[in-house]
C-alpha cells in the first residue's frame, strides 16, 4: 500500500525527501504547518494526505516522498506545535517553573484543540519535544530526587494536563451543541442535585455541597490539582 513502510522507522531519521528529482518546492516544516492549519480550522478528521497536498499545491502521491505514513504526518504536527513552547531561564523554584510549564501546555492545547488526541509517548522524542523535555529537566535541577523520578514527574504532569484539557474541550463542545444556554443547563442540574441531597440518602455528598462556596473557579482548581501533584514529588525529610 502506498506510504506504508516495510519496517518501523523514525521520521526524523529519514532524509527530508526520498527519491530523485529537482529541488523540492516545500519542506517538512511546510507540510506540518499546512496540516496544523487544516486541523485548527476543521478538526483532526479533516487532515488527510490529499487535503494537505491540496493545501501545498502538489500531488497526493508526491507527498509520500516526504511523509510515508499518516502517523508520520501526525508526528510532524505534534512537533510543530511543540515548538510554540516558550523556553525561559529557570527561576530556581522548581515548583513555580513546572506550574508555568503546565499552564503554558494547557494554553497551547486550547489553541490547538486536536492536540490532546495525539498526545503519546511515541511522539515524545521529536526535535521540539526533546527541547521541551530537556527544558523541564533543567527546571527540575533543584529537586533532589533521582533522574528517573524527574522524568516520571514530567510525564505525569503532561498526562494530567492533557486529561484536564480534554475534559474542558469536551465540556465546551457539549455546551455549544445545546439548544439553550449553559446557565440554564446548570440551573436545572443544580436543582435536580438539591432534590437528591434533600432525600438524606447521600449525607457525605450533601456535606460537600453545603460547604461549596459557589461555582468552581477552573483556574483555581487547575492550580490546586497541579500543586498537589507536584507536592507528591517533594522529598520527605
Mind explaining what this structure looks like?
The structure is a single chain. This protein is mostly helical. The chain has two domains: about 10-80, Homeodomain-like (Arc Repressor Mutant, subunit A, Orthogonal Bundle), CATH 1.10.10; about 95-230, Orthogonal Bundle (Tetracycline Repressor, domain 2), CATH 1.10.357.10. Helices cover about 60% and strands about 0% of the residues. The protein has helices at about 30-40, 50-55, 60-65, 70-80, 95-110, 115-120, 125-140, 145-175, 180-200, 205-210, 220-230. Helix 1 (about 30-40) packs across helix 4 (about 70-80), helix 5 runs parallel beside helix 8 and helix 8 (about 145-175) packs antiparallel against helix 11 (about 220-230). The longest helix is centred in the C-terminal third of the chain and has 31 residues, at about 145-175. The model has no long low-confidence stretch (mean pLDDT about 90).
